[in-house]
């Protein structure tokens, strides 16, 4: 795995200083929400500071295991970067294969399917060299379990993120994973998969939160997708969140909005849809588990005021307890942002603005998770490594 440690540490130094030291024994879960804060079981405020570790690609394995061990990667995240959470991404296809007893779940099979027999065998050997606790018959889900176990050993929380349905690179309007009913986005399978993972992860000591879906967006070329509206969103995500909570009441539930998760306005503003429906946090059985997540990749920004204003109106207004324009209060976590780490982009208007937004969130610093820890991928859009 190609870690760019020096530039990443430099770019994140500003945010690490705002993470409070935990005094209670790890994991101090379950977490709940109180106003604009995430609160631990012992009553301490929790500010997530972390990184994305992708596992939703064609192999359906956490990236980088051909270059390093799970233990070393986790140690890098915890000790070198000083982070306290991993956003671990997965594909619903992994769950579908498990429930369907697919023969493609083993390390050997999944790598061969994604990379071809020869390259798959090479990468398999590298993974086993770095992670000798595995065999060629170890399953994808067992690898995820191992990541969670190591995270717990090193006292790093896990946000388990459903990134896609079909295991491919994300995201576009035409990839079949975009919106409810899209080519690969079977709503039944998605809700079933969330419920399954909620139940399965009861044994994960490090589990702190689960997300509903990464970067919902309009499916522009689909003949099967449902209308891209907040009504459709509401109709689908509330049963999904209920399924998570009924299978496992421990994790926080991260809610993403529309337009690649850049718009949470409907959730935080308490407005009604064309059908007269609204997002009503207090009425849900998981009312004290709701976290709003937001993404931003406005790398070409020339004015921080524009970025800051947009993010406030579409997310961070929920953290301002005195602003009646955004009545559905709750914590906001920026679960994706990022920039080139090799060309000085950490000094750009965009990067500095994200720093300001996170540090100066209403009421105090807000949580964040940078994209991405991996410097390469087993395979991405046909390109290997």
From TrEMBL:
N-terminal signal peptide: 1-24
**Superkingdom field:** Eukaryota
Which GO molecular function terms does the record list?
Answer: hydrolase activity, hydrolyzing O-glycosyl compounds
Name of one Pfam family that matches? Cellulase
The chain positions of domain Glycoside hydrolase family read: 68-348
Q: Does the keyword NADP apply?
A: no
Identify the keywords attached in UniProt to this record, alphabetized.
Glycosidase, Hydrolase, Signal
Family statement drawn from the similarity comment of this UniProt entry: Belongs to the glycosyl hydrolase 5 (cellulase A) family.
In Swiss-Prot or TrEMBL terms, this protein is called Glycoside hydrolase family 5 domain-containing protein
The organism is Hortaea werneckii
